[in-house]
Amino acid sequence: MSVVRVGVHGACGRMGRRVVAAVHAHPDVALAAALESSHSKELGNDIGEVCGLGDVGVQVSAEMPKDLDAVIDFSVPEASLALAERCAEQGTALLVATTGFSAEDRERLMTYAERIPLMVAANCSLVVNVLMKLAADTAKIFRGRDFDAEIIERHHRYKVDAPSGTALKLAEIVEEGMGLTERVYGREGITGERPRNQLGVHALRTGDNVGEHTVVFSTLGETLELVHKGSSRDSYVSGAVAAAAYLAGKAPGEYGMADVLGF
Ligand SMILES: NC(=O)C1=CN([C@@H]2O[C@H](COP(=O)(O)OP(=O)(O)OC[C@H]3O[C@@H](n4cnc5c(N)ncnc54)[C@H](OP(=O)(O)O)[C@@H]3O)[C@@H](O)[C@H]2O)C=CC1
Ligand SMILES: O=C(O)C1=N[C@H](C(=O)O)C[C@H](O)C1
Question: 167 and 97: one domain?
Answer without folding.
Answer: no
